[in-house]
Amino acid sequence: KSYHNKESIDYLSDLFKKNVPFILTLQNGFRATEQLYDFFGEKILTGAAYIDAILSEKGKVFETGGDPKIVLGSMFNNELDILTKIFDLMNSDELAIELSKDIKSVIWRKLMYISSLSGIMCLYRQPLENILTDKTSQHLLKELITETYNTSIKNNANIHESEIQKVFDELYYNQPNSISSMYEDMKKGNLIEVDAIQKYVSDIASTNSLPVPFTDLISTVLSKYIEFIEK
User: Coil, helix or strand for 22?
Assistant: First the structure.
């Protein structure tokens, strides 16, 4: 999780004092890539994992989605041989690997989904199918998706505006199977990744003088939750 990054970076810095290999992060958003870059430079690979799973109370992992895949790329150099080597090593019938020349847009597109889903579920503290029963909640979900999309465009992502409706439809028509690990962590009283998701969107929007009132609200509320459980 993103809140383990400082500890992980300290460990990696000690492990690779002289010869830093390539490091792949599959955490949601860009925060991990930026933090790793500050310590290890351009030897950071970024990916988006599309694998829906939950951890039961007995410690068993259950996959809830279909057709799992991981999209890989580099924010710095798309011509790296290591990307092809990873593809050749990992791509299989069980887990599809894709290489992207524009991983930035891939990550932002996933943030449109993740930030709105986890944000609205943690705000309401309810499963998505309990939330989207009225037009007001549906409108809020659409606004959250739109705010992240607008922020991505300000951050030079290449995403068509039609993806706003596509993300909404993905969430709306898959309500029973929509699972948020952030919401699951909140129910358990654990730390959550608001800094890497909603707060990141808010920060980028603020830097570009872009109003994102709903995302700002959720970022503030969930950040207060973090303050409360850390006391």
Answer: coil
